[in-house]
Write a structure and sequence with these properties.
Helix content is 41%, strand content 4%. The chain is mostly helical and 97 residues long. It is flat. It starts with 8 loop residues before the first helix and ends in a 6-residue tail after the last strand.
């Protein structure tokens, strides 16, 4: 199996930009190797014979594992404390064009 040497620094920077994280040059180098290792492992998984295996859409048979939705009184002042920005007694959201 041919081992992947790594991904380029530009690709790592692009992934970091998509994830909205800042990376140092050392972190870019480390991540490049780690991502290459993950991709190498996927190449191993590609070799597994799955011809007679039925696809599993759900690994565990869990259905509707939500909590009961119950109404309760809310305190507006407590809720507004959680808002990152507010204007008066309203939550302020960024303008979307």
């Amino acid at each position: 199996m041919k081992k992947i040497k790594g991904i380029s620094k530009e690709q790592v920077r692009h992934l970091a930009w998509l994830a909205k994280i800042d990376l140092s040059a050392e972190e870019e180098q480390i991540l490049s190797k780690q991502i290459a290792d993950v991709l190498d492992y996927f190449r191993v998984l590609d070799k597994v014979d799955t011809k007679n295996i039925e696809p599993a859409y759900l690994v565990r048979e869990l259905r509707n594992v939500f909590r009961q939705d119950t109404a309760r009184k809310a305190n507006a002042d407590e809720i507004l404390k959680l808002a990152p920005t507010k204007k008066g007694r309203y939550v302020k959201a960024p303008k979307i064009v």
